[in-house]
Amino acid sequence: MEKCPGSDQEIRIVALDADWSDLGAWDAIWQVEQKDAQGNACTGDVLLDQAQDNLVHASHRLVSVVGVSNLAIVETADAVLVADKSNSQHVKNIVAKLEKLERQEHKLHRQSHRPWGWSMMLEAGEGFKVNRLILEPDASISLQKHEHRAEHWIVVKGTAEVTDSESKSVYQENQSTAIATGHLHQLKNIGQDDLHIIEVQSGDQLLDDDIIRMQS
């Protein structure tokens, strides 16, 4: 809003009489969440025993909490945070340490949303990466090529149209195709339901820097 003065947009302010929280830290989220009889606010697959006043957020696996109180416990596909709720605003100190150590967890995430759906990294190692791709109906990945990697697409669910160089083919459940290094290619969901793909990348460079897009 501080950039609005002098703009072409008409700006008006209306007073609002309501409760407000910017939810800027995990303790603020605990305050507004629904709690059990022991004051625990839980999301996801959580088991508690002799635990009080905790915020527990489980995204991908079972989180068990025993004999502790006043903690913020946040499990995601990328990392796990355990902090005293009163110190949860100090997560920024951990981010600063990650930057100092030149680590990537605060910038690169296993699951990322894309214009066509979302992607999740399942496994990675020297010279390979395995991703799970979900494309929404009628969505497509841009026409592109890679100079340093090949890709293998396996259809788990749905119907895919694959462009490889100048040819187009349709693949359904349990079918797969390999895209050679340097080939122009595109993946499109031509079905009415989400398209589920397992993508195996192999090569000496597996970062987004190796994506050469020909069109959006």
Can you walk me through this structure?
The chain is mostly beta strands. The chain is 8% helix and 40% strand. It contains two helices and 17 strands. It has helices at 26-32, 91-100; strands at residues 41-43, 46-49, 55-58, 63-66, 71-75, 80-84, 111-114, 117-125, 128-135, 144-145, 149-157, 160-164, 167-171, 176-179, 185-189, 195-203, 212-213. The strands form five sheets. It has a six-stranded antiparallel beta sheet, with no helix packed on it. It has a four-stranded mixed beta sheet with strand order 1-3-5-6, covered by helices on one side. Strand 5 and strand 6 (80-84) form a beta hairpin. The relative contact order is 0.12.
Strand order of the largest sheet: 7-8-9-16-11-14
The coarse overall form would be: globular
Number of strands: 17
Distance between the termini: 31 Å
CATH class of the largest domain: Mainly Beta
CATH architecture of the largest domain: Sandwich
Helix share bin: under 10%
